[in-house]
Description:
It is rod-shaped, with a radius of gyration of 36 Å. It is of the alpha+beta class. The termini are far apart. The chain has nine helices and seven strands, in the order E-E-E-H-H-H-E-E-E-E-H-H-H-H-H-H.
Amino acid sequence: MITVYYRDNDRLQxxxxxxxxNGIDYNHLVWVDLNQLSDEEEKYVETRFHVNIPxxxxxxxxxxxxxxxxxxxxxxxxxxxLVPLNGTYKPEPASFILxxxxxxxxxxxxxxxxxxxxxxxxxxxxxYLNGYQVLVTIFEIxxxxxxxxxxxxxxxxxxxxxxxxDEKRVNKDLIxxxxxxxxxxxxxxxxxxxxxxVMQSLLRSDYFPEExxxxxxSMLKDITSLIDHTDFGFERLEYLQETFLGLINLxxxxxxxxxxxxxxxxxPPTLIASIYGMNFNSMPELGWNYGYLFAVGLMVxxxxxxxxxxxxxxxx
Length: 316
């Protein structure tokens, strides 16, 4: 789908379709959004705008040269946007091409940031005069969404912390949940740092207008704050993990302690039984009518004495 926004006098117009660019003056273009293009549409756009649309592999490359490139004709920036998937998120790439004063975006997924941008253009279209404003606004929207995601994960971590302090609810599912939040926090941090690299590159650009630099610097401050929040999230998760493992060790120590106490309690009766099981002829108790009761009573008494010693010393 090709969606084009262009200025017609003081109004922002929207058209869609392959042939929508016919008759539109390039000087009036504001934003050309390319979403899930067919091969024919992709060739048409590349020929019309004299640009090379990157494929998904190129957009996902982590090298600096693949994330940002500029020359005297245009600026190309690639960035990842998180989309929900089965209770988690996955990164989807999007490419931004600033040429002259209009913006060309290319993606293969319906991204929430772009949909929010469409809504803003419908309501406040007269405030957007060029592609630079659209680019900055899209990233502002994405950073706000990332902030909401980080806040949501922080709340989930808080709830998980309450479970860790409840010994009755400590189980292996809890460690899996902590590990899941660690992966989510890592994903968010990588996604935010990706935006940081793009914003820093725009500030260093010789072709990015200085009048939009204050908004970019403001976004960089927000990004730094979000990175600090993710660092705090990692610290909390590490603390919860250590607490969880500490509780597991305590439970294991309790079990080992019980087995140790039981073994020690039965050691004196075992010794007594072993002595009277030797069957030597010179043992006087063998011919005694009350020998059996005496031996059993002696074993019970030795167990009780051992148990009393443990309780008196608070070993139980």
